[in-house]
Protein backbone atom coordinates (compact mmCIF):
# COMPACT_ATOMS: atom_id res chain seq x y z
CA UNK A 1 0.00 0.00 0.00
CA UNK A 2 1.38 3.40 -0.92
CA UNK A 3 -0.36 6.68 -0.16
CA UNK A 4 0.40 9.83 -2.15
CA UNK A 5 -1.25 13.25 -2.27
CA UNK A 6 -0.44 16.90 -2.95
CA UNK A 7 -1.56 20.44 -2.30
CA UNK A 8 -0.81 23.65 -4.16
CA UNK A 9 1.33 25.99 -2.07
CA UNK A 10 -0.61 29.09 -3.06
CA UNK A 11 -2.59 31.01 -0.44
CA UNK A 12 -3.27 29.70 3.03
CA UNK A 13 -4.28 26.26 4.24
CA UNK A 14 -8.03 26.45 4.96
CA UNK A 15 -10.69 24.35 6.60
CA UNK A 16 -11.78 22.83 3.25
CA UNK A 17 -8.25 21.50 2.64
CA UNK A 18 -8.05 20.30 6.23
CA UNK A 19 -11.36 18.45 6.47
CA UNK A 20 -11.39 17.38 2.81
CA UNK A 21 -7.83 16.06 2.65
CA UNK A 22 -5.15 16.84 5.22
CA UNK A 23 -6.92 15.26 8.19
CA UNK A 24 -7.09 12.03 6.18
CA UNK A 25 -3.41 12.38 5.30
CA UNK A 26 -2.51 12.48 8.98
CA UNK A 27 -4.78 9.55 9.86
CA UNK A 28 -3.51 7.45 6.97
CA UNK A 29 0.09 8.39 7.81
CA UNK A 30 -0.31 7.15 11.38
CA UNK A 31 -1.99 3.90 10.31
CA UNK A 32 0.53 3.35 7.52
CA UNK A 33 3.50 3.92 9.81
CA UNK A 34 2.16 1.23 12.17
CA UNK A 35 1.60 -1.18 9.26
CA UNK A 36 4.94 -0.49 7.54
CA UNK A 37 3.35 1.19 4.46
CA UNK A 38 4.63 4.50 3.24
CA UNK A 39 3.21 7.92 2.51
CA UNK A 40 4.39 10.69 0.20
CA UNK A 41 2.93 14.18 0.59
CA UNK A 42 4.08 17.02 -1.59
CA UNK A 43 3.64 20.70 -2.37
CA UNK A 44 2.49 21.02 -5.96
CA UNK A 45 4.69 24.00 -6.80
CA UNK A 46 4.95 22.92 -10.46
CA UNK A 47 1.16 23.04 -10.69
CA UNK A 48 1.14 26.53 -9.18
CA UNK A 49 2.89 28.03 -12.22
CA UNK A 50 -0.12 27.15 -14.40
CA UNK A 51 -1.77 30.39 -13.21
CA UNK A 52 -0.24 33.90 -13.16
CA UNK A 53 1.97 34.01 -10.07
CA UNK A 54 4.58 36.00 -8.20
CA UNK A 55 7.85 33.99 -7.89
CA UNK A 56 8.76 35.41 -4.47
CA UNK A 57 5.28 34.59 -3.14
CA UNK A 58 5.52 31.03 -4.53
CA UNK A 59 8.85 30.44 -2.79
CA UNK A 60 7.56 31.82 0.53
CA UNK A 61 4.23 30.01 0.10
CA UNK A 62 5.98 26.67 -0.43
CA UNK A 63 7.75 27.01 2.92
CA UNK A 64 4.63 28.28 4.67
CA UNK A 65 2.54 25.38 3.36
CA UNK A 66 5.22 22.90 4.47
CA UNK A 67 5.09 24.47 7.96
CA UNK A 68 1.27 24.29 7.92
CA UNK A 69 1.25 20.59 6.96
CA UNK A 70 3.79 19.86 9.68
CA UNK A 71 1.61 21.78 12.16
CA UNK A 72 -1.38 19.63 11.12
CA UNK A 73 0.58 16.49 12.02
CA UNK A 74 2.46 15.44 8.89
CA UNK A 75 5.59 14.07 10.51
CA UNK A 76 8.66 13.67 8.35
CA UNK A 77 9.78 10.76 10.48
CA UNK A 78 6.70 8.86 9.23
CA UNK A 79 6.01 10.44 5.81
CA UNK A 80 8.06 11.75 2.92
CA UNK A 81 7.31 15.49 2.63
CA UNK A 82 8.74 17.42 -0.34
CA UNK A 83 8.00 19.89 -3.10
CA UNK A 84 7.70 18.69 -6.72
CA UNK A 85 10.42 21.04 -7.97
CA UNK A 86 13.01 19.00 -6.03
CA UNK A 87 12.05 15.86 -7.98
CA UNK A 88 12.56 16.39 -11.73
CA UNK A 89 10.98 12.98 -12.42
CA UNK A 90 7.50 14.60 -12.03
CA UNK A 91 8.06 16.95 -14.99
CA UNK A 92 9.84 14.24 -16.99
CA UNK A 93 7.09 11.67 -16.58
CA UNK A 94 4.49 14.30 -17.44
CA UNK A 95 6.12 14.78 -20.84
CA UNK A 96 6.18 11.04 -21.41
CA UNK A 97 2.49 10.77 -20.46
CA UNK A 98 1.56 13.68 -22.74
CA UNK A 99 1.98 11.14 -25.53
CA UNK A 100 -0.74 8.95 -23.98
CA UNK A 101 -3.25 11.54 -22.68
CA UNK A 102 -5.86 12.49 -25.29
CA UNK A 103 -6.96 16.06 -26.07
CA UNK A 104 -10.58 14.93 -25.73
CA UNK A 105 -9.96 13.70 -22.17
CA UNK A 106 -8.35 17.00 -21.15
CA UNK A 107 -11.12 18.98 -22.83
CA UNK A 108 -13.61 17.41 -20.43
CA UNK A 109 -11.81 18.53 -17.25
CA UNK A 110 -14.06 20.88 -15.31
CA UNK A 111 -11.17 22.56 -13.48
CA UNK A 112 -9.72 23.84 -16.77
CA UNK A 113 -13.12 25.23 -17.71
CA UNK A 114 -13.52 26.89 -14.28
CA UNK A 115 -10.02 28.33 -14.07
CA UNK A 116 -9.72 29.52 -17.66
CA UNK A 117 -13.23 31.03 -17.55
CA UNK A 118 -14.04 33.13 -20.60
CA UNK A 119 -10.36 33.54 -21.45
CA UNK A 120 -9.56 30.08 -22.86
CA UNK A 121 -7.25 31.45 -25.53
CA UNK A 122 -5.27 33.34 -22.91
CA UNK A 123 -4.96 30.40 -20.48
CA UNK A 124 -1.51 28.83 -20.15
CA UNK A 125 -0.77 25.52 -21.86
CA UNK A 126 0.22 24.30 -18.37
CA UNK A 127 -3.33 24.88 -17.11
CA UNK A 128 -4.60 22.60 -19.90
CA UNK A 129 -2.06 19.83 -19.29
CA UNK A 130 -2.26 20.24 -15.49
CA UNK A 131 -4.07 16.88 -15.02
CA UNK A 132 -1.29 15.04 -16.87
CA UNK A 133 1.25 16.34 -14.34
CA UNK A 134 -1.14 15.25 -11.60
CA UNK A 135 -1.25 11.77 -13.17
CA UNK A 136 2.57 11.71 -13.23
CA UNK A 137 2.60 12.74 -9.53
CA UNK A 138 0.76 9.61 -8.49
CA UNK A 139 1.87 7.09 -11.13
CA UNK A 140 5.57 7.74 -10.43
CA UNK A 141 5.28 6.18 -6.99
CA UNK A 142 3.15 3.09 -7.79
CA UNK A 143 0.48 4.74 -5.64
CA UNK A 144 -2.45 2.65 -4.43
CA UNK A 145 -4.42 5.31 -2.45
CA UNK A 146 -4.84 9.07 -2.95
CA UNK A 147 -6.63 10.96 -0.14
CA UNK A 148 -8.31 14.03 -1.71
CA UNK A 149 -11.46 16.15 -1.61
CA UNK A 150 -14.29 15.54 -4.06
CA UNK A 151 -13.05 18.23 -6.48
CA UNK A 152 -10.01 16.10 -7.39
CA UNK A 153 -11.99 12.99 -8.29
CA UNK A 154 -12.12 13.76 -12.00
CA UNK A 155 -8.36 14.29 -12.14
CA UNK A 156 -7.77 10.91 -10.52
CA UNK A 157 -10.10 9.17 -12.94
CA UNK A 158 -8.00 10.68 -15.70
CA UNK A 159 -4.82 9.38 -14.02
CA UNK A 160 -6.33 5.89 -14.08
CA UNK A 161 -7.29 6.26 -17.77
CA UNK A 162 -3.76 7.38 -18.64
CA UNK A 163 -2.21 4.52 -16.66
CA UNK A 164 -4.51 1.98 -18.28
CA UNK A 165 -3.87 3.20 -21.82
CA UNK A 166 -0.10 3.32 -21.25
CA UNK A 167 -0.11 -0.20 -19.78
CA UNK A 168 -2.19 -1.45 -22.75
CA UNK A 169 -0.20 0.31 -25.43
CA UNK A 170 3.36 -0.20 -24.18
CA UNK A 171 3.49 -3.05 -21.66
CA UNK A 172 2.82 -6.75 -21.83
CA UNK A 173 -0.26 -8.08 -20.02
CA UNK A 174 1.70 -9.70 -17.25
CA UNK A 175 4.03 -6.73 -16.67
CA UNK A 176 2.01 -3.47 -16.54
CA UNK A 177 4.22 -0.51 -15.57
CA UNK A 178 1.68 1.57 -13.66
CA UNK A 179 -0.52 0.76 -10.66
CA UNK A 180 -4.09 2.14 -10.88
CA UNK A 181 -4.62 4.56 -7.96
CA UNK A 182 -7.84 4.72 -5.87
CA UNK A 183 -9.11 8.07 -4.58
CA UNK A 184 -9.99 8.20 -0.86
CA UNK A 185 -12.69 10.84 -0.36
CA UNK A 186 -14.22 11.67 3.05
CA UNK A 187 -17.96 11.12 3.48
CA UNK A 188 -19.28 14.35 4.98
CA UNK A 189 -16.42 16.78 4.35
CA UNK A 190 -15.81 15.94 0.69
CA UNK A 191 -16.74 19.46 -0.33
CA UNK A 192 -16.63 22.27 2.24
CA UNK A 193 -18.33 25.35 0.84
CA UNK A 194 -17.59 29.08 1.11
CA UNK A 195 -18.96 30.79 4.24
CA UNK A 196 -20.32 33.56 1.99
CA UNK A 197 -21.93 31.35 -0.69
CA UNK A 198 -23.06 27.79 -0.05
CA UNK A 199 -22.92 26.95 -3.75
CA UNK A 200 -19.20 27.59 -4.34
CA UNK A 201 -16.41 25.63 -2.68
CA UNK A 202 -14.22 27.09 0.05
CA UNK A 203 -11.08 28.08 -1.83
CA UNK A 204 -7.68 29.68 -1.42
CA UNK A 205 -8.34 31.87 -4.43
CA UNK A 206 -11.61 33.47 -3.22
CA UNK A 207 -10.79 37.20 -2.89
CA UNK A 208 -12.84 37.44 0.33
CA UNK A 209 -11.00 36.16 3.40
CA UNK A 210 -14.40 36.02 5.17
CA UNK A 211 -15.32 33.13 2.84
CA UNK A 212 -12.90 30.72 4.52
CA UNK A 213 -11.45 29.69 7.87
CA UNK A 214 -7.66 29.65 7.59
CA UNK A 215 -5.78 27.28 9.83
CA UNK A 216 -3.68 30.27 10.90
CA UNK A 217 -6.70 32.39 12.00
CA UNK A 218 -6.77 33.35 15.69
CA UNK A 219 -9.75 32.56 17.92
CA UNK A 220 -11.40 36.00 17.55
CA UNK A 221 -11.17 35.84 13.77
CA UNK A 222 -12.67 32.33 13.68
CA UNK A 223 -15.58 33.38 15.92
CA UNK A 224 -16.18 36.50 13.81
CA UNK A 225 -16.14 34.58 10.53
CA UNK A 226 -18.58 31.96 11.80
CA UNK A 227 -20.90 34.63 13.23
CA UNK A 228 -20.90 36.51 9.92
CA UNK A 229 -21.29 33.35 7.81
CA UNK A 230 -24.24 33.65 5.43
CA UNK A 231 -27.33 31.74 6.60
CA UNK A 232 -31.09 31.87 6.16
CA UNK A 233 -33.54 32.96 8.87
CA UNK A 234 -35.20 29.55 9.48
CA UNK A 235 -34.18 27.41 12.47
CA UNK A 236 -32.29 24.14 11.86
CA UNK A 237 -34.53 21.24 10.81
CA UNK A 238 -34.68 17.99 12.77
CA UNK A 239 -34.02 15.78 9.69
CA UNK A 240 -31.35 16.03 6.92
CA UNK A 241 -34.10 16.31 4.26
CA UNK A 242 -35.01 19.69 5.76
CA UNK A 243 -31.64 21.07 4.64
CA UNK A 244 -32.51 20.67 0.97
CA UNK A 245 -32.31 24.01 -0.81
CA UNK A 246 -30.43 25.48 2.18
CA UNK A 247 -26.78 25.13 1.07
CA UNK A 248 -25.32 27.51 3.68
CA UNK A 249 -27.11 25.79 6.57
CA UNK A 250 -26.08 22.36 5.25
CA UNK A 251 -22.44 23.49 4.97
CA UNK A 252 -22.27 24.65 8.61
CA UNK A 253 -23.92 21.46 9.84
CA UNK A 254 -21.56 19.34 7.71
CA UNK A 255 -18.54 21.16 9.16
CA UNK A 256 -19.83 20.48 12.69
CA UNK A 257 -20.39 16.82 11.80
CA UNK A 258 -16.90 16.45 10.31
CA UNK A 259 -15.22 18.08 13.33
CA UNK A 260 -17.00 15.76 15.75
CA UNK A 261 -16.61 12.68 13.50
CA UNK A 262 -20.40 12.50 13.52
CA UNK A 263 -23.10 12.71 10.86
CA UNK A 264 -25.40 15.48 9.62
CA UNK A 265 -28.35 13.54 11.08
CA UNK A 266 -26.58 13.31 14.46
CA UNK A 267 -25.90 17.07 14.57
CA UNK A 268 -29.55 17.77 13.70
CA UNK A 269 -30.76 15.49 16.45
CA UNK A 270 -28.83 17.75 18.87
CA UNK A 271 -29.54 21.14 17.27
CA UNK A 272 -32.80 20.62 15.28
CA UNK A 273 -35.29 23.39 16.10
CA UNK A 274 -32.52 25.76 17.28
CA UNK A 275 -31.73 29.01 15.47
CA UNK A 276 -28.29 30.04 14.23
CA UNK A 277 -27.99 32.34 17.27
CA UNK A 278 -27.33 29.19 19.26
CA UNK A 279 -25.69 26.96 16.63
CA UNK A 280 -23.08 29.41 15.33
CA UNK A 281 -21.38 30.07 18.70
CA UNK A 282 -21.28 26.30 19.35
CA UNK A 283 -19.68 25.73 15.93
CA UNK A 284 -17.24 28.63 16.46
CA UNK A 285 -16.09 27.24 19.80
CA UNK A 286 -15.67 23.77 18.36
CA UNK A 287 -13.53 25.17 15.55
CA UNK A 288 -11.38 27.22 17.90
CA UNK A 289 -10.81 24.19 20.10
CA UNK A 290 -9.78 22.08 17.09
CA UNK A 291 -7.56 24.69 15.49
CA UNK A 292 -5.77 25.95 18.61
CA UNK A 293 -3.03 23.28 18.70
CA UNK A 294 -2.49 23.53 14.93
CA UNK A 295 -2.22 27.33 15.05
CA UNK A 296 0.21 27.17 17.96
CA UNK A 297 2.49 24.70 16.20
CA UNK A 298 2.24 26.67 12.96
CA UNK A 299 3.24 29.94 14.64
CA UNK A 300 6.24 28.26 16.26
CA UNK A 301 7.46 26.84 12.93
CA UNK A 302 6.51 29.29 10.25
CA UNK A 303 9.65 31.44 10.36
CA UNK A 304 12.09 28.58 10.77
CA UNK A 305 13.20 28.38 7.12
CA UNK A 306 16.22 26.30 8.01
CA UNK A 307 14.17 23.50 9.58
CA UNK A 308 11.58 23.57 6.78
CA UNK A 309 14.23 23.51 4.05
CA UNK A 310 15.93 20.56 5.74
CA UNK A 311 12.63 18.60 5.87
CA UNK A 312 11.96 19.31 2.16
CA UNK A 313 15.52 18.42 1.13
CA UNK A 314 15.38 15.08 2.96
CA UNK A 315 11.95 14.34 1.49
CA UNK A 316 13.12 15.33 -2.00
CA UNK A 317 16.09 12.96 -1.83
CA UNK A 318 13.91 10.04 -0.76
CA UNK A 319 11.26 10.82 -3.42
CA UNK A 320 13.93 10.94 -6.18
CA UNK A 321 15.15 7.53 -5.13
CA UNK A 322 11.69 5.93 -5.11
CA UNK A 323 10.59 7.59 -8.38
CA UNK A 324 13.68 6.54 -10.38
CA UNK A 325 12.76 2.94 -11.34
CA UNK A 326 9.25 3.82 -12.59
CA UNK A 327 10.58 6.75 -14.61
CA UNK A 328 13.28 4.52 -16.12
CA UNK A 329 10.58 1.93 -16.91
CA UNK A 330 8.53 4.55 -18.75
CA UNK A 331 11.49 5.70 -20.91
CA UNK A 332 12.27 2.10 -21.69
CA UNK A 333 8.67 1.10 -22.51
CA UNK A 334 8.46 3.99 -24.98
CA UNK A 335 11.65 2.94 -26.78
CA UNK A 336 13.66 5.97 -25.73
CA UNK A 337 17.35 5.17 -25.93
CA UNK A 338 19.38 6.40 -22.93
P1 LIG B 1 -5.66 21.92 -3.82
O1 LIG B 1 -4.35 22.56 -3.49
O2 LIG B 1 -6.69 22.79 -4.47
O3 LIG B 1 -6.31 21.28 -2.54
C1 LIG B 1 -5.62 20.37 -1.68
C2 LIG B 1 -6.59 19.32 -1.17
O4 LIG B 1 -7.68 19.93 -0.49
C3 LIG B 1 -8.92 19.47 -1.04
N1 LIG B 1 -9.88 20.61 -1.00
C4 LIG B 1 -11.12 20.53 -0.47
N2 LIG B 1 -11.78 19.52 0.11
C5 LIG B 1 -13.03 19.78 0.57
N3 LIG B 1 -13.63 21.00 0.46
C6 LIG B 1 -13.00 22.05 -0.13
N4 LIG B 1 -13.57 23.25 -0.21
C7 LIG B 1 -11.67 21.84 -0.63
N5 LIG B 1 -10.75 22.64 -1.26
C8 LIG B 1 -9.67 21.86 -1.48
C9 LIG B 1 -8.59 19.08 -2.47
O5 LIG B 1 -9.52 18.16 -2.98
C10 LIG B 1 -7.20 18.48 -2.32
O6 LIG B 1 -7.29 17.13 -1.92
N6 LIG B 1 -4.55 19.47 -8.07
C11 LIG B 1 -4.49 19.41 -6.61
C12 LIG B 1 -3.10 19.18 -6.06
C13 LIG B 1 -2.42 17.98 -6.61
C14 LIG B 1 -2.68 16.62 -6.28
C15 LIG B 1 -1.77 15.86 -7.05
C16 LIG B 1 -3.57 15.98 -5.41
C17 LIG B 1 -1.41 18.00 -7.51
N7 LIG B 1 -1.02 16.74 -7.78
C18 LIG B 1 -1.73 14.47 -6.97
C19 LIG B 1 -3.55 14.58 -5.34
C20 LIG B 1 -2.63 13.85 -6.13
C21 LIG B 1 -5.00 20.71 -6.03
O7 LIG B 1 -4.91 21.74 -6.66
O8 LIG B 1 -5.41 20.62 -4.72
UniProtKB/TrEMBL annotation:
One of its GO terms (cellular component) is cytosol. A motif ('HIGH' region) lies at residues 9-17. It catalyses: tRNA(Trp) + L-tryptophan + ATP = L-tryptophyl-tRNA(Trp) + AMP + diphosphate + H(+). InterPro entries: aa-tRNA-synth_I_CS, aa-tRNA-synth_Ic, Rossmann-like_a/b/a_fold, Trp-tRNA-ligase, Trp-tRNA-ligase_bac-type, Trp-tRNA_synthetase. It comes from the Bacteria. Signal peptide: none annotated. The keyword Ribonucleoprotein does not apply. Its main location: cytoplasm. L-tryptophan binds at residue 137. Catalyzes the attachment of tryptophan to tRNA(Trp). Homodimer. Belongs to the class-I aminoacyl-tRNA synthetase family. PANTHER family: TRYPTOPHAN--TRNA LIGASE, MITOCHONDRIAL. This is Tryptophan--tRNA ligase. It comes from Croceicoccus marinus.
Amino acid sequence: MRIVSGIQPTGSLHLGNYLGAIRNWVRMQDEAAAAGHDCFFFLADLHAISMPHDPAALKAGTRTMAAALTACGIDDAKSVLFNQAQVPAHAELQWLLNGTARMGWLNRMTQFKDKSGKNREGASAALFTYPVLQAADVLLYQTTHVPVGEDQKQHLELARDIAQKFNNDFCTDNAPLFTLPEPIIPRDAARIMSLRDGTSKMSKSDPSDMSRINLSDDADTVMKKVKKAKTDPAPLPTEPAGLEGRPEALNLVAIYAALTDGTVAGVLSDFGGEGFGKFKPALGELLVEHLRPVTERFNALKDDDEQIDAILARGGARAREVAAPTLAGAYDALGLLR
